[in-house]
Amino acid sequence: MNRFTKEHEDEQEIYTKVVRAGKRTYFFDVKATKGDDYYLTITESRKKLGPNGEVNYEKHKVYLYKEDFIKFAEGLNETVGYIKNAKPEFFEEAKQAESNEFTLSVDEEFDI
Asked: 83, 87, 78, 88: which is closest to 111 by C-alpha?
């Protein structure tokens, strides 16, 4: 067992939101430590085909701790707002490409 696994072996999963977006899937997982502190893991998962046709998943993970929740949300809101103002066509393209399974209103989600 490596150090990372040992540090997180006592975590308890509280809530999960799965967002499928094209070739990527995002997992937003709220977890609790043994001391009942919450933290968030954001995982990006992409399906990759290997040279022999085998399926692999490439994953990238970000850990967000309670002391950073507000600053992270503010930074994300500001950044998405900037993109929406600078490139509104990106949001129109995304709305047109949405399937019935996946809907995201950036205006509602990020109060923009």
From this structure: 78
